[in-house]
Design goal:
PG/BPGM_mutase_AS, alpha/beta, 6-stranded mixed sheet, 6 strands, Rossmann fold, Phosphoglycerate/bisphosphoglycerate mutase
Length: about 210
């Protein structure tokens, strides 16, 4: 199969549940450790994928993603390749706050953040457009580096939203109606400069954590 017609697949995974996920805090670039539940989720996913073959394992450099990737590395025997472009969106002044705290302390900024305006630049953060450009450029670089192969990528909820909307050609400001689960398995294929969504929100491995 030639490179021009080969299909490359990215298995895009959100990190396991974190302490701040359980507290409903805005994380962004500030980190929070996996909870015992989050670690169990990551280990269950690792067991599920251990018999499968991947060309590479990439991860965001943020601890919650890297800790999840470490579980996958143990069963796939792949080194973890870190790329900062796979980070969550930098949410600036809103990071570390619950949504109610953000509304109280930064009412204007939080309201503008909620509009999903692609060019709204959160103070000390980044815009949605900047965020999407770095995510998509990173993933397109990877699929061209591994034509016709399968890649594991551990990242964040915001990255998943961006890739989902980019793939389905949805506007930035369209409200999210779909769920994003911790350690969910989401498969995107890339062929001849076109993205396609194959699997979304697969958490069947959670059964082993019950």
């Amino acid at each position: 199969m030639s490179k021009s017609t080969s299909v490359t697949r990215i298995f895009l995974i959100r990190h396991g549940e974190t302490l701040w996920n359980s507290e409903h805090r805005i994380q962004g670039h500030i980190d929070s450790p996996l909870t015992p539940t989050g670690l169990a989720q990551a280990q269950a996913l690792a067991q599920r994928l251990q018999a499968q073959t991947f060309a590479a394992l990439y991860s965001s450099d943020l601890g919650r993603a890297y800790q999840t990737a470490q579980c996958l590395a143990q069963t796939t025997n792949l080194p973890i390749l870190v790329d900062q472009r796979l980070r969550e969106r930098n949410l600036g002044c809103l990071q570390g706050l619950t949504r109610s705290e953000a509304q109280q302390q930064f009412p204007k900024e939080y309201q503008l953040y909620q509009t999903l305006d692609p060019d709204y630049l959160i103070p000390n953060g980044e815009s949605l457009r900047q965020f999407r450009q770095r995510c998509i450029s990173c993933l397109e670089e990877l699929v061209k580096q591994y034509p016709g192969q399968r890649i594991l990528v551990v990242s964040h909820g915001g990255v998943l939203i961006n890739v989902f909307k980019h793939t389905l050609h949805l506007p930035y400001d369209m409200p999210r109606w779909f769920e994003i689960f911790n350690t969910s398995l989401n498969v995107f294929s890339y062929k001849e400069d076109h993205w396609r969504l194959e699997t979304w929100g697969d958490v069947s491995h959670w059964q082993s954590t019950a």
